[in-house]
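hi! just following up on the protien thing from before. the input was this:
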Amino acid sequence: MSNRLASAQSLYLRKHADNPIDWWPWCEEALETAKAQDKPIFLSIGYSSCHWCTVMEREAFSDSAIAEYMNANFLPIKVDREERPDIDSIYMQALQMMTGQGGWPLNIFLIPGDLVPFYGGTYFPLEPRYGRPGFLQVLQSIRRFYDVEKEKLDALKQEILGGLKQSTILPISTSDSLSKELLYRGVETNTGVISIGASDFGRPSFPMIPYASLALQGSRFQFESRYDGRQLSARRGEDLALGGIYDHVGGGFHRYTVDSTWTVPHFEKMLYDNGQILEYLSNLWSAGMKEPAFERAIAGTVAWLKREMTTPEGYFYAAQDADSFTSTEASEPEEGAFYVWRYDELEKILTADELEELKAAFTITEKGNFEGSNVLQRKESGKLSDSLEAILDKLFEVRYGAKSTEIETFVPARNNQEAKTGNWKGRIPAVTDTKMIAAWNSLTISGLARAYAVFGEPSYWELATRAAKFILEYQWIEGRFHRLNYEGQATVLAQSEDYAFFIKALLDLQAASPTETFWLEKAVEVQQEFDEFFWSLEMGGYFNTAADDSGDLLVRSRSYIDNATPAANGVAIANLIRIALLTENLEYLDRAEQGLQAFSAVLQQSPQACPSLFAALDWYLHATLVRTKEEQLKTLIPQYFPTVVYRIESDLPEKAVGIICRGLSCLEPAQSQAQLLEQIQRVSD
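and the predicted 3d structure came back as:
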């Protein structure tokens, strides 16, 4: 019999609908029920494409003995972190305070009523293993502690609650501390994050685009540093475009690799990674690093987005799972099954000469590099030959059941049942989480906009603008921006990352086509709503949630730490500066300065935590407006000037091609394109 989650819109929640555990969604009724029955809340947070979330659903959450004890002694609540990142961030921080580490699934126990956590962990095995106790033992110990150790429980509550509240208060400094020296130290520190040392061998490899982007952005500065930012930025691009993290057959990037050699990925594909990587590789190309593998990876990723991740309405799906079924009779999906290649399989698909050519270019062996199969990883950079592209298209046809030129849309499998019963001409695909997340769509719009600006491919622009127009038309209900869309239904009020990333996306569309003022006008409108509901008048910066949408949260916090995606405040502050330049409204600049001052202690004391705030500081110190004629833009826009905005100016002095303004002053009018470029370069460094 299904539980309450059967009617949930979230794919992740519905995956738990047949568990014997009496799950609740996060709602007021659940919280009140736990309080009335004096039951500790078991809060379990994850997401649909999380491998260990899936394992725990299959093991502990499907066990009848655990369910019987859980239902009698706890009130279990399941949360999709992609729906409610505000809840996830608070309790992830609490878990890290308690254990020193975090991850998903995030399983944490809360005191009913005040919702303060008192114990937590990540994956709990069904039976004791991996040096961890069995989950039933954990539940029994926690219930005993809750019933017997009231004094210890209260002391732990005060400690955790005090730590969470203290974390929201940051010392504020003056604008004098926002110096070039601080920026240079932040650039150096964060560039070091993407360097590889002896201690990194054997560790997983993540894209870490906020760090790589700052390294590239800071590589134009001339200061003494331990690292070569340009070289490390290029190396990160090569690792991404050549490594097994990129799907060389179907396009798109997997989430990360389990090794330090960028060989074997965790196979889920997340929209937020792909959007950021599109922008990053495009910026590498525009900065003069014209590696053919970058262009191929961009084109392949856009092809994957268009084929598998774009709805007829124009928005993008959220993610694709790592696991897929090898046959309709298989009881459980296998990790990477849709993507990997057994050697004997390749021998049947390809001629002997084709296989030898593929082996010369990619890491392929009879033993394989992943559980007896092969993940394709390129051995060298450069342009692939036409014959190699034809070989890869043969593999594409085996996987998808048709040639790449014959498939315009590959209809997703929305759950395991659809995956197993679908009429697939090739392999059974991984399940796609078809929800629309405004923040992730915005990152992808930005990536596509920049790729269009650099390469001029019209299809990139079409994909970007259709998604942006969908959000503008359908994600506002009763005058408020909403975060999610399920099958045409907008839901959940937008959070700070949705506002910050979407405003950036609108500004990036304007940057790619400055003649279209529509995008700037919309950015200003959304910014006004963002300021009204999220800005902290007392401390500066933006809260994660709106003032009228924070009643069920333990604390109201501000995002400033970068993870797989940039922190909302870093992006938001840079947006303010860009809008100030384009509108000549200095109130936006004043607010940006207040925001940077609000997080100045973090910039000074924990530079490694906040590369996007340093990118915003770069904008603050080097923001440049180029007022020029439309004919100059074709040359300027594809180039990499990370803190420059363009505005078309019809009323320039005679013979002038442009005027460059930085801060509150302008340079002499440029009389030639060469002089204009020289001036931009000079004021940007």
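The radius of gyration is 26 Å.
The longest helix spans residues 150-167.
cheers
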